[in-house]
Write a structure and sequence with these properties.
Blueprint (H helix, E strand, L loop, with lengths): L2 H6 L6 E9 L2 E6 L8 E2 L2 E2 L1 E2 L3 E2 L13 E6 L3 H9 L5 E9 L9 E14 L2 E8 H6 L28 E6 L7 E5 L3 H4 L9 E3 L4 E8 L2 E4 L10 E5 L6 H6 L25
Parallel strand pairs: 2-5
Antiparallel strand pairs: 1-2, 1-8, 3-4, 6-7, 7-10, 8-9, 9-10, 11-12, 11-16, 12-15, 13-14, 13-16, 14-15
Length: about 270
């Protein structure tokens, strides 16, 4: 049965959506079907998860055509996006078909766009996406004029190498809900040169975003259960300021901000 016929049917319609993410030459397939459902798409098995999205709106207004997609923060794509997404382009295609049809050849591309950023809340991640039509309508230049660095840490424009800013450490004591105390950090890291805020902790089985860092103590974005003596690897973060880029990262020649831009509107009639 053609997709449009099933879509309009009051009895046969049972829509399933496939969220197809592409990031760093890797494909991630997530199905909106129930956890018990085994869904394959174009020969690839999908991860069935409680995924949700906002309403799809077709409009010339870029803000109204934005789409939020919510997924659990412990799935493979979420973990990879936390650690790599800011330095890699991430696109999203939403395919839609009906489970009652059993022939995914009748699927349609329901929405197409890219992931701009993410917001972390409790145990899920909200992906902030824009439609492909927003990109087409926008002028070609994508760089922002801002005081802060516009480059993602360890991306090509940044030119820093991730492995040069990783530090092995061990837990000084058992982890608390979101907190970890580390032994073995170099003296410069203990002094926030560079710091770990905005970086990543990897325990070999899972990765955590580091929300804050002070001395030996770090706060993570989600709970972890690690014993004293557990070995982890932490990666430096960046606060995007010129001072941090110069003093902590020694990378001022690649700083992507505009330090001398005016802090107020110079055309407001007041003496500058």
């Amino acid at each position: 049965m053609p997709y449009i016929t099933t879509e309009a049917s009051e009895q046969e319609g049972s829509p399933v959506e496939i969220y197809e993410f592409f990031m760093a030459n890797k494909r991630y397939l997530i199905s909106s079907g129930g956890v018990r459902d085994q869904v394959t798409f174009n020969g690839f098995r999908c991860e069935s998860l409680p995924i949700s999205r906002g309403q799809v709106v077709y409009t010339s207004d870029n803000q109204k055509s934005a789409l939020d997609v919510v997924i659990p923060d412990d799935v493979t794509f979420a973990r990879d996006y936390i650690t790599k997404g800011n330095s890699n382009s991430c696109t999203l295609n939403i395919h839609r078909f009906h489970a009652s049809d059993n022939t995914q050849g009748n699927s349609v591309v329901y929405w197409k766009g890219r992931v701009l950023g993410a917001r972390f809340d409790d145990n899920h991640i909200t992906l902030q996406c824009e439609s492909v039509f927003s990109s087409i309508a926008r002028a070609g230049l994508r760089q922002q004029y801002t005081l802060y660095c516009r480059h993602a840490l360890f991306s090509s424009p940044c030119r820093l190498i991730r492995d040069n800013f990783k530090y092995p450490a061990t837990l000084a004591e058992p982890s608390t809900a979101f907190g970890v105390k580390l032994n073995g950090l170099p003296a410069n890291v203990l002094q926030n040169k560079p710091g770990l805020t905005g970086g990543v902790m990897d325990d070999g089985n899972d990765r955590y975003s580091i929300l804050s860092h002070s001395g030996q103590n770090i706060v993570l974005d989600k709970p972890c259960k690690l014993n004293a003596g557990a070995v982890v690897t932490v990666y430096a973060g960046c606060d995007k300021t010129k001072e941090y880029c110069k003093d902590a990262m020694n990378n001022i020649e690649n700083f992507g901000g505009f330090s001398w831009m005016p802090l107020r509107n110079i055309s407001d009639g007041r003496p500058y």
